[in-house]
Specification:
Layout lengths: L9 H10 L5 E5 L6 H12 L3 E6 L12 E4 L5 H26 L7
Parallel strand pairs: 1-2, 2-3
């Protein structure tokens, strides 16, 4: 599954401009690492000086050299890659939540 806001459209570029701010992170997800819309979204994010992270399959595809960090699921099978992406998404969400609650002096679940 390759996912990106329709960055090729003006609306997609506007959404990226509106939601980005200093220190923000753009995450691109592509099983192959070669999805044109995701590659283009990450290029736009880098021009906007966002930190860029890609979730891909084993090779990393074209995204591997075009993002700050590429997390490559060690598989060439789409279902396994997607399962890895889901797990990684949950882990990132939990870490972000823990960091946010710790900043506000609340105990985290980790």
């Amino acid at each position: 599954m390759d996912l990106a806001i329709g960055i090729e459209s003006q609306a997609g570029r506007e959404i990226l401009r509106v939601v980005q701010g200093p220190g923000d992170v753009a995450i691109g997800i592509s099983t192959s690492g070669n999805s044109p819309n995701v590659v283009k979204a990450m290029a736009t994010a880098r021009k906007m000086e966002l930190h860029t992270v890609a979730l891909t399959g084993a090779s990393g595809g074209g995204l591997k050299g075009r993002v700050d960090h590429c997390i490559c699921v060690p598989s060439n099978e789409t279902p396994r890659i997607q399962e890895g992406h889901m797990l990684i998404g949950h882990i990132i969400s939990e870490l972000v939540e823990a960091a946010m609650f710790e900043k506000h002096g609340q105990a985290s679940g980790l």
